[in-house]
Amino acid sequence: MENRVNTVRHINTSDIKNTSDIKEIGKDTLYYVPAKIIPALVSFINIAIYTRLLTPNEYGLYILVMTTVSMVNAIGFNWIGYVIWRYFEKYKNDNNLSEFLSTIFSTILIAFTIIALLWFTVTILLKRYMGIHFAYLLRIGIAVLGAQIGLSFVLEILRLSRQGKRYSLYSSITASGTLLLAIVFLYVFSYGAEGILLAIILTSGGIFLFEMKRIYKYWKIKCPRISSTILKRILFFGIPQIGIAGGGILLAIADRYMIRSFIGTEAVGIYAAGYTIADLGIQLPLSVLTLAAIPVIISAFENKGETETSRLLRKLISIYFVVLSPVAFGIAALSKGIINIAIGKLFQETSVILPWVIGGVFFFGLSQYINIPFQLKEKPRILVYLIFSSAILNIVLNLFMIPRFGILGAAYATLIAYSI
């Protein structure tokens, strides 16, 4: 009888702890809503404006540059974000956060310098094959990459230190500021894709420089300064993240390059417009929840243990299904109406891919929760095998489906690969 009472008490205590964590996530979620709602609304406006002020060819070039930036960012720098959120709480508890952040920031500077030089060299050597205009846009992309890396660094620190209001403010200013500047460059000065890229550099880079000054002093970051002990640990955890990012980027964007190869640049612009709408439909509510959830999950793991973290994750996965299943079905059912409202007349063909892409994006969103335990237990290598398997499958499917079905074939491949 006593054992039963103890068991009941243990269960009740666990439920109370999980409820408290869910309440913390709910409270923080309210702070992060503007950080995603405003950029999402701006992104819809972006599509409507950019697809009207740019030709499909110029919009396709812009997409290819941003795709390249995303790919290099994911492979070269996204692992640093995972390292920060995995060890921020730990080194904070150990009173060694200054040394940790100093090592991270110094590593970022060294890595960016090397990658920027390589990128610039490639655009010079391959200019004849890329085309002069595309090579020029890619060189601007180096500065876009630097601005986005810096912004991501400061936002990650704000998120993990539970400064949701400041995070939301900067995210909103970045999104709206980029749109306003881009309109000026496109409409007033008649720039092409470079106008959007310059707007990104000025807004993201400006926010990074402004906030980094405060973070530098508050957390006592010293640069250049690298702790060999910390560096060894973060590389052991971080290097597999490069493989995860590489597989993830192949899974997410390889179809853009394959569409260009099989069909043309205009088809890239049309496909990307529909994919962006589907991605926003799922990623908007998911990212708001994830922004608030990750710091709480890590705190639970570091301070309460594995069992409590497992219960918390199960509750969050249940919330994902309850909230996002209706969203996915709704977007699929209303795809034609959404496309008619959201984007220009030259891009209406994208309505045929939206129901298929939204299904794939739904499974991709779910994987972001299922992947968390591998990261918490410092076993990311398992994820490398899983994600690369799906990425290879995606490429093989696109090779067969794009020549036969066009951009709809790419949508089929996306759904199958993300489901796997």
Could you explain how this protein is built, in words?
The chain is an all-alpha fold. The protein has helices spanning 2-53, 56-76, 78-93, 97-125, 127-130, 132-160, 164-188, 193-218, 228-262, 265-303, 306-333, 335-342, 354-370, 372-376, 381-405, 407-419. The radius of gyration is 22 Å and the shape is globular. Residues 7-11 have low confidence and may be disordered.
Brief description of this entry?
The chain is mainly alpha-helical and 420 residues long. It has helices at residues 2-53, 56-76, 78-93, 97-125, 127-130, 132-160, 164-188, 193-218, 228-262, 265-303, 306-333, 335-342, 354-370, 372-376, 381-405, 407-419.
Number of helical segments with 4 or more residues: 16
Elements, N to C (H/E): HHHHHHHHHHHHHHHH
User: Percent of residues in beta strands?
Assistant: under 5%
Helix content percent band: over 70%
How do the helices and strands line up, and which of them pair or pack?
Elements: H1 2-53, H2 56-76, H3 78-93, H4 97-125, H5 127-130, H6 132-160, H7 164-188, H8 193-218, H9 228-262, H10 265-303, H11 306-333, H12 335-342, H13 354-370, H14 372-376, H15 381-405, H16 407-419
